[in-house]
Amino acid sequence: QVQLVESGGGLVQAGGSLGLSCAASGSTSINAMGWYRQAPGKQRELVATITSFGSTNYRDSVKGRFTISRDNAKNTVYLQMNSLKPEDTAVYYCNAYQGGYNYWGQGTQVTVSS
Known about the structure:
The chain is mainly β.
């Protein structure tokens, strides 16, 4: 069983930056970790993922603005978000994929004002 605890998020003006972090416990190694987001009235969507080897994947709309990274020793994944836009406003969820199961954090709100 993997537990995920997120931190970060908040309110920022358009063009600003925010950082998210997510610490995983309950497993010594996690295959893939990532961030998803869900805006009101919309489906949850992938933002970025990173494997234990450091391979990354981003949705097109955040490429060049967001950076995902992880510290395997700490079982922690980070998301640095720069040049934020109002359309980035959503609840951001940390995800871990391990042993064929998806695990989710509780979510953290990111609000970008115009």
